[in-house]
Amino acid sequence: MAAFPNNTLRSFKPLSPNSSTVRNSVLARNSVSQVPSSTGAVSVKEKRSFPGKPEADVVVIGSGIGGLCCSGLLARYQQDVLVLESHDLPGGAAHSFDIKGFKFDSGPSLFSGFQSKGPQANPLGQVLDALGETIPCASYDSWMVYLPEGEFLSRIGPTEFYKDLEKYASANAVREWKKLLDAILPLSAAAMALPPLSIRGDLGVLSTAAARYAPSLLKSFVQMGPQGALGATKLLRPFSEIIDSLELKDPFIRNWVDLLAFLLAGVKSNGILSAEMIYMFAEWYKPGCCLEYPLHGSGAIVDALVRGLKKFGGRISLGSHVEKIVVENGRATGVKLRSGQFIRAKKAVVSNASMWDTLNLLPKEVVPKSYLDRTKTTPQCESFMHLHLGFDAEDVRKDLGIHHIIVNDWDRGVDADQNVVLISVPSVLSPDLAPPGKHVLHAYLPGTEPFDLWKGFDRKSSAYKELKAERSEVMWRAVERAVGPGFSREKCEVKLVGSPLTHQRFLRRNRGTYGPAIQAGKDSFPGHSTSIPQLYCCGDSTFPGIGVPAVAASGAIVANSLVSVSQHSELLDAIGI
């Protein structure tokens, strides 16, 4: 089933990608040599060369989802844009890699909203629509959960979860869940009335967002009535405040909501914006909803974004490690590569790196104290443990589903280390990800592995290998539980264990972090412009925060901010929002 139908771009007048005057695109590896690593992946050694002209209107550091959304839209806006990626593969935390014919996702694998259209569509879907790209998806509606109360197949939709609550929780849990849905689903119209793609970082937002969507926002408030409109005032407050205002006390309901919040944004319900949770509830618990997995893996999303970038003349250079951001006369004017090559940015530099990694790219003498203090005092989410496996499908359960969530102990909290394990077996829905008759599996601890446990270890030491074996055991046990008694560790054809050091090394993430641990109501994610003129940031260190839809929106906001209001408005018209 195809997601993001390739709509004809109405009203938008810039040159089509087939025009002979569109710039030639470049997808180049920067003369890199690939060296096998201890994990079976490759490391990159950069040589002193750079493909194409060493300048662009906008230079984007990093090819994560946020950076690719930003650069693709900038190319669509006819800006000369160049993406510089340190790795030899694009995609950042969403990249895919191949070992012995097994194609692994390195990061996100739980997606929804790809096939929705219009103002309420997934921001990533809106970007792909603007780029004229489509992604075939497999649709499904359930995942397996393994909880202290029992294990069951949890289905999304408005009614199915009630059956699980009746069996594994209580009649009171059923009543409270209904009370919660009745209260928040009407708020989804307000939460989704302002498309993230309409937002920009200047006063032009009054035209592209406020004036454009005021009628629909007002209509949603009228339809909700006084009580609903009052509830909508809590959209930018922690979701726990809505839970508390409804006097929901059932332990299962509160634990389940904490789990959903943590999976979405890396914080529990007392730290996530209500708007984010309500958007998710609208996607998962309304009639006709479904989950979607991109055929050919999450790398298909990255491939589509790169195609869109190239289609409109954008360039991406792999194996191009940015050593520092160059600041001249107080303004960001380009970047210096590890090779020593200077790349000039005539209009802006956009960093898709984390806030901490961006800070490390800046000359210390140009960083304002306020910028330094904000970055250094922002708390971090912890890191990850990963387990990538390739194995024979013959001896495992035949009804194996794609997603499995294991919670070992509610009392410890969903954010406790070694407590929650997520498992994805995408070859169930996309068999081409593994050789015939095989499965590919990714298990991970979602942003709960303490980096300090690993700090200072030599990756080649026996002590490091012993710690990896010890800390990965919880994932192995979870896999054995999910895949069934026929599964054998010894028979796995591919076994890769990744630690926070792996995460830090391959993704260039400070301390291997999941992102900022910013709690709604106590602080807010930074905006996209910085105190250094012509330097912008996108990705999970900026508004709206962590997660694929959020980082896609952040990239779009930066791109919109770098073009005129008229260009921005024409694009919104073109994609029908």
UniProtKB/TrEMBL annotation:
<protein>
    <submittedName>
        <fullName>Prolycopene isomerase chloroplastic</fullName>
    </submittedName>
</protein>
<keyword id="KW-0413">Isomerase</keyword>
<dbReference type="InterPro" id="IPR002937">
    <property type="entry name" value="Amino_oxidase"/>
</dbReference>
<dbReference type="InterPro" id="IPR045892">
    <property type="entry name" value="CrtISO-like"/>
</dbReference>
<dbReference type="GO" id="GO:0016491">
    <property type="term" value="F:oxidoreductase activity"/>
</dbReference>
<dbReference type="InterPro" id="IPR036188">
    <property type="entry name" value="FAD/NAD-bd_sf"/>
</dbReference>
<dbReference type="GO" id="GO:0016853">
    <property type="term" value="F:isomerase activity"/>
</dbReference>
<feature type="domain" description="Amine oxidase">
    <location>
        <begin position="65"/>
        <end position="560"/>
    </location>
</feature>
<dbReference type="Pfam" id="PF01593">
    <property type="entry name" value="Amino_oxidase"/>
</dbReference>
<dbReference type="GO" id="GO:0016116">
    <property type="term" value="P:carotenoid metabolic process"/>
</dbReference>
